[in-house]
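Students often ask why we bother encoding 3D structure as a string. The short answer is that it lets us treat folding as translation between two languages. Here is a chain of 364 residues written in the first language.
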Amino acid sequence: MAYTVNEIAKSLAANATGDVSIVLSGPAQPEMAAADSLALAMDPKYLGNLAKGNARVAILPEGTDWQALGLDAAIFAPHPRYVLSGVNQLFEIAPHAPEGIHPTAVIDESAAIGAGTSIGAFVIIGAGAEIGKNARILSHVSIAENAIIGDECLLFSGVRIGARVHIGHRFIAQPNAVVGGDGFSFVNPDPGAVEAARAGQQPEDGCIQKHGLARTNSLGSVTIGDDVELGASSTIDRGTIVDTRIGNGTKIDNLVQIGHNVQVGAHCLLCAQVGIGGSAVISDRVVLAGQVGVADNVTIGTNVVAAGKAGISSNVPPNRFIMGNPAIKAEANIESYKAYRRLPKLVAKVDVLQKQVSKLLGKD
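And here it is in the second language, the structure alphabet:
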């Protein structure tokens, strides 16, 4: 697809100036831009790179002298990251989803498939499943019995949707994501080392596992709201009795593990390699950066932001920025880290003082 400068500016609700009739074929980095590219120079630090490319049009910070940069037109970005989102949506390269149902797909006769749905090669859809309108289901996807998926979903290759899972509209799942796998719940028939650790005690010699671990089957499933996205190879386990739940608008990155019974609120961001233990509660608009770990049964309040690799082992009140392991307020963590870096000097000073005191004592 190609668009004029004027069409692009209108779609972004941004201001344009210069020759707005120029037709552009797609976005590009300033130094790699061709004459028909839209150079992305929203940050001032990229302005110098425009001279290295051949762009005639660029997205620029507000107030930039676009003519001095040798451009024929410009679009001004009041909110650069948001503008980039709009540009990439406009020039989206949609995944190939052929019309209709591929002859190799296996669909139970009791399944309900909405109008306008595309189903790719080797897809399996179980008994009683319901798929909404205009769904795009790519190759090798499996949807188990009695699963329900709303309108306009996009399931990439290898996605697995378990039995009785209920998903809202406009759901996107990247390759090999799994929704509705069994929860990881096992119990010792006799009290042992795990029970001692839960009680805050060190295991004793008598804490011997005499029997194998007993499985607790997951009788619940997973309920997901509207406009949720799930990254590649991420997993959402079904609940033990009640459903695991994901709220509207939540976005989940690659390689995220969400345990059984977890309740995730609306419009959360869970970044790569986040792990959430069973029965944890994540309130609305929570951001968990990469590799954050959340212990089981922990509650995290609304608007909490956890920095990368934070270890959250206790409840977190709303409206906090936390860091570290164990996670604490960011400013307290920074002070602790500064003190930690000073420890070698402090130890050296103590060593010198100790020697001085020893000499004084020796004189006495």
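Translate back mentally: The longest helix spans residues 330-363. Keep this in mind for the problem set.
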